[in-house]
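Problem 12. The chain below contains 161 residues. Write out its predicted structure in token notation.
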Amino acid sequence: MATKKKKRGIPKYVLIRDTREKEGHGWDFDLDEFCAGTEHKKLDEGDYTIQGMEHLFRVERKGCISEFAGNIGKHRARFYREIERLKPIKYKFIVIEEDFDTIANYHLSNKITPNYIISNIISLQVKHGIQVVFVGKGKRADLYIRWLFHKMWEYFVNGRL
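Solution.
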């Protein structure tokens, strides 16, 4: 696989991780066949991007459904201000490290119900053009996010974005 990459001339990407992302949470990529490592840098919007694609691609990570529920509930005004700042970014993702099924059993309050959560997800997707993805925990989340960054970089380098 690494030989194919060299043959096609795709350079490795550098993951940029926001300095405000909590230590011990989220992703730090080491050097591998696709990635040249992780740089920690303050991002005004989102938690992750790729060096050279900051104007085009962002990922906001939510560690669990309760973090997302807090964003659309108690911290709604702040969260939607950040969503507005993401408007100029063409490729936006909210990656929730949880299975979609957890929504069915989630009730933070009378207001934060499964229906309210799903309604907000649809609003983010339709009104704001944000892909909301449930990736599970641990290795499943890591697998998805690594492929997301790899494919976005490949499309960018090949002029397909």
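Discussion. The chain has five helices and six strands. Students who got a different answer should revisit the alignment rule from Section 12.3.
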